[in-house]
Amino acid sequence: MDPVLVVVVVLVVGGLIATWFVLRNRRATPVDDEWTLPPEDEPSAPGEPIRQVLTREALVDPDRRLDPSKWDNSPDGEPEEVEGDLPTHFDREYLRKRQEE
């Protein structure tokens, strides 16, 4: 078979597939299919607790009151004894002494 003919057939088939794909995806979806309202909730019985819903106000202005009652105020364990004074900077002499110990 002639190679030019094969290339033309492949291009025609590719063009047909591309045209079919574009036409299939260009159809407008009906507005009813794009957005449907959620079903209305039944009114809650008086004995049921109120369901909390995340609102815009809760996101924009959250409750930021400080509640220290939930803090862990238990005493720490035994403080570790630090041997000697800690240096203000680490130099070669300090590191050498530390290595010799």
What percent of residues are in strands? under 5%
Structural class: mainly alpha
C-alpha geometry: flat
Radius of gyration: 37 Å
Number of strands: 0
Order of helices and strands: HHHH
The major sheet is characterized as: none
- Helical percent range? 40-55%
Number of helices: 4
Q: List the uncertain runs.
A: none
Mean pLDDT across the residues is 79
Short summary:
With 101 residues, the protein is mainly alpha-helical. The chain has helices at 3-26, 31-34, 56-60, 92-100.
Sum up the structure in keywords.
101 residues, 4 helices, mainly alpha
Task: Describe how the helices and strands are arranged.
Elements: H1 3-26, H2 31-34, H3 56-60, H4 92-100
Explain what you see.
The protein has 101 residues and is an all-alpha fold. It has a domain at 1-27. It has helices spanning 3-26, 31-34, 56-60, 92-100. The protein is flat, with a radius of gyration of 37 Å.
